[in-house]
Amino acid sequence: MFNDQCPIFKDQLPSRRPRSSFVAMKIGIVCYPTYGGSGVIATELGLGLARKGHEVHFITYRRPVRLAHFHENVFYHEVDNEDYPLFEYPPYDTALASTIVDVVQYHNLDLLHVHYAIPHAAVAYMAKKILISQGRYVPVVTTLHGTDITLVGNNRAFAPVVEFSINKSDGVTAVSQSLKNDTQRLFHIERDIRVVYNFIDFERFRKVDKDHFKKIIAPDGERILAHTSNFRKVKRVEDVVQIFNKVRQQVPSKLLMIGDGPERQNTERLCRELGICDDVRFLGKQDAIEELLAICDLFLIPSESESFGLAALEAMACEVPVISSNSGGLPEVNIHGVTGYLSDVGNTEEMAAYAIQLLQDEAQLQQFRKNALAQAQRFDLHNILPDYEAYYEEVLERSAIKVE
Ligand code: GMT
Predict the structure, then answer these.
(1) Fewer CB near the terminus (10 Å): N or C of the chain?
(2) CA 323, CA 342: separation in Å to the nearest integer?
């Protein structure tokens, strides 16, 4: 007899994995390929693992944005989700499950790592069951990124599937302690959740000299504030503008709005109403965000909910202090009075006051810049990646032990 968690096919299990020496794994990564943080983390993780010698197979419906070049050990499998006239909604989940089965079998994968519970964890479960019927067991690790959990708070329709597929995963990670707590509060979770934080690649995110940009954006030496997001309601983008409106009355400054999404039009309208359009630039989606962060003095992220706040970490790696809300995992990243300041969601008065105080005190700003970098270094890719590798090993070993 076997069940969903317990592999029965002894000969394929990784008893060949001595802890002390490096053993390359074949890992399938399922993610959203878009600009969102979960896709970025999944792609950077895959690339990092491949650089270490693991074989990584990305399975998704479009080439992930950060998978721009050829990489040894990296394979990309596009999910073919053909739209038949019969379907009002093309059945992506079915196409994804079929692709996973095919890739696991053909490339002999050791483990599947799916990012974002909806629908990836449920689809991975379906693929796992199909593979079991074919005499093959592949353990599944699910990483929870935030909105896959908090969304359920707003839409209970997802709850049974999310809860079931988390419990049926062989390993579960969350990107912050706060998200782990939320998951345990919102669902009946029977298994341990490991916190593995978001990370940053310092090869890319570091302060570089882009003074020529600075002169174009702030010709009179104004301070530069920035916000990056997907401009969804949860980001409270209008708060960013309200904070900036107060700051610019005290400190000559400019605001860079990087990204795009549903709230952009409302936000642009607000800038017009406030008469501050000359000081605000909407840049849309940008690939080289680090080049823009390099010229910034302060980063604003007043989100309603934020499981971690990768955008804040990216800013801090570029030595930019952060004014944020205190929601979700943000206090685990941004340290109040050290790397920036935190306020209650919606308290734009206080956020603006903190920003003004910091921008008017050059010595303190410089100290916060250093502190932000030091804090970001805790989340260096080279520190976090081994946590994922160790967790994979643990999940594989646990699966092996169960059958012995
Ligand atoms: O922030 C978003 O809307 C995108 C979202 C995603 O799923 O791609 O980001 C979430 O995952 C990131 C990576 O783990 C986290 O850093 C973000 O904090 C989290 N966003 C929210 O919780 C709102």
Answers:
(1) N
(2) 6
Closest alpha carbon to 125 in 152, 147, 97: 97
Distance 307 CA to ligand 1 centre (A): 6
State in Å: Cα 309 to ligand 1 middle: 7
pLDDT per residue as tens digits for the range 391-404? 999 999 988 755 44
Taken in order of first residue, the domains within the chain and their CATH numbers are 26-199+381-403 (3.40.50.2000), 211-377 (3.40.50.2000)
| pLDDT tens per residue across span 307-334 | 999 999 999 999 999 999 999 999 999 9
pLDDT tens profile 212-240: 889 999 999 999 999 999 999 999 999 99
- Average pLDDT on 175-188 reads 95
Query: Contacts by 359-365 with C-beta closer than 8 Å and gap 24+?
Result: 359/223, 359/247, 359/251, 359/253, 359/297, 359/298, 360/250, 360/251, 365/297, 365/321
Residue bearing tokens 């209650």: 344
- Residues whose beta carbon lies within 6 Å of some atom of ligand 1: 36-39, 41, 116, 145-147, 175, 198, 230, 232, 234, 305-310
Atom of ligand 1 nearest to the CA of 150: 22
Distance (Å, whole) CA 354 – CA 344: 13
Question: Which residue puts its alpha carbon closest to atom 21 of ligand 1?
Answer: 306
Mutation test residue for ligand 1: of 306, 316, 324, 325, the one with most atoms within 8 Å of CB: 306
CA of 37 to the centre of ligand 1 (A): 5
